[in-house]
Amino acid sequence: MKNLVIFSLIVSFLTVHYVGELTAQAPSKADVPKFMELLKDKEAKKRVEGVNGIAAIGKLKASYAADAVKPLMEMVKKDSDAKVRAASAIALGSIDPEDATVVDLLIEVLKEDKDKDVRSGAAQGLGQLGSRAKKALPALKEAAAKAKEDQDKKMTKIVGAATKAIQAK
Predict the structure, then answer these.
(1) Other CB atoms within 10 Å distance of the CB of residue 50
(2) DSSP 99-154
(3) Please, are residues 144 and 159 in contact by the beta-carbon 8 Å criterion?
(4) What is the CATH number of the domain that holds 67?
(5) Domain of 41?
(6) pTM for this entry
(7) How far apart are the C-alpha atoms of 160 and 120, rounded to whole Å?
(8) What does the pLDDT look like over 78-100, one tens digit per residue?
(9) Cα angle vertex 89, ends 85, 93, to 5°?
(10) Is 57 helix (H, G, I), strand (E, B) or coil?
(11) Domain count, the chain
(12) pLDDT in tens, 7-33
């Protein structure tokens, strides 16, 4: 349980840090249209700001960010920028949507994305979903083995935290 709390605090800090670039105060439901518009921006940095804003709002109340779930899922799969894909994967975990296909998508990304940071984002997103992501445990175990083989301490730590968070809930 302690690991889940620490994991959530780290994700919350990172989300607030990035959203702070866009707004001086905590985002609210009224900010959703602004963040949704940023998801379409040509600049990757702006898209990441939009994603992180949606994530922060989703942490407040998932229903406020419900309209962003499908666009975020598309961004995880298709955005040309790895930072945007990684942020989108983390945001989906933050929002904790009702859509059961989110877990399947994040498992797919964890297994198949070519970028390590995107795979890491998928692991973080799965960890935030807690017990709803139990079927991701075999994929996380594979990711942990690969990270250990590659001597990737950062990925090992992230996958371990995600696994503990899923098992804790």
Answers:
(1) 28
(2) -THHHHHHHHHHHH-S-HHHHHHHHHHHHHHGGGGGGGHHHHHHHHHHHHHTT-HH
(3) yes
(4) 1.25.10.10
(5) 2-168
(6) 0.84
(7) 11
(8) 999 999 999 999 999 999 888 88
(9) 165
(10) helix
(11) 1
(12) 554 555 555 444 444 445 678 889 999
